[in-house]
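Chain A, query sequence.
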Amino acid sequence: MTDDDHQHRAASPVNNASDSEASPLGGMTSLWQSTAERFAGNACASGDIETDVAVVGAGVAGLSTALHLSEHGTDTLVLEAESPGSAATGASGGILAPEFVRDGIAKACRLHGQEKGERLARMVGKSATFTFDLISRYRIACDADQRGFLSPARSDRDMDSLRTDGRAWSSLGFDVEFMDPCETANAIGSHHDDGALFFETGGALNPLAYALGLAQVLRAAGVPVFTNSPVRCVQKDGGGWLIRTPESSVKAKRVVLAANGGNAGLHPALRGTTLPLLVHEYATPPLSSADRRRYFGSAIPYTDRQTYVFTARLDGTGRVVSALPEVFPKWSSRRFASEARRRFAGMYGMKPSIEYAWSGTAHLNPSLMPTISLPEGDLSLLAIQACNGRGLGVNTILGSEVANLLASGNKEASAVPVTRPKPVTLHCVASLMPRLIMSAAHMRDRWL
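Chain A, predicted structure.
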């Protein structure tokens, strides 16, 4: 997965992991934790506090929302259970992909109508540029590298989808380029794909450093970011809301829930509305300059269109960052390392060692489209969740959309559909489907 749609779990080197481990992960730090500075911000929330808008969650969605609310002059604070970026954002791969996960613009238009579908697509298409501009404006040090993003394809079906998407993005004024097999191989270093769409505005960054940088910007602007302040409940309080943490009671006129999968525990209407997919990210030791040129071409970040997705990028030190979805049976540490090396060997003819591995849960909704949920049916309580593997860029620009929505009070002004949450039918069964689909795709990839 590419973005911040992950609930963070611990990470560790996997080379020395034993067979007895139930997962490839132990108790050490992720690549991003080892390279990002700590947040020197607010302590936990305490006492009685009042604010106009309380944002729950200090991932990219919550931090961007708070930042843009502050730019509107709205009294805002952020409540975070741990520290900024420690959950969804910090467990992502750090790729900024300005496109939809699947089916693209045509699906957005089918679901929302031509005009609203195209508005949503324009927002998604601008998301990477919006993010990099924000980073530049506030001088956030996060290893940001806007060298583009590639969406490669291999099967005839995916190639047809690729061409359709390319024409649709071009019709909306976005500068996308179709690459043939030779151009694709030169860009990513692998000769296995039949073509790719190149989005020149995409790129990559250190997602945890980005979140910490946003938090520091908020702190400098006088917006409290309360850490180690898990929200226990959100309840109606007259015309507003009362939020309780272990050491504080926060009264807010409006609330934005930006805790990703954690939103389900904060309002009953959000239960069973998203589907989980556990994803394991991993990073190699830094490659030599010669190996970078030999194996990774132009080093453009990419995520292919296979169901058993392959994604790769280089960080600023030359480490390759990639991922594997969880399958049945659960990965052991040895199987995980073996599978990661098998996939690399298939793509690049090399079997790298793995220096870091960490996990997160991608939360998906059935449409795989970004939405803003209204658990109470009005703008006093909004929920941002399930950005479906495109969270870093989409959640950044979505924060601006939410701030504008709250400032204007006009639901129709939002480029993102604003709807009542709808539980997934037979959620307890449906929640197994992403992992089952990945398991079947893994078997096809390995044996066919």
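The domain at 11-447 is CATH 3.50.50.60 (FAD/NAD(P)-binding domain). The first strand starts at residue 11 and ends at 12.
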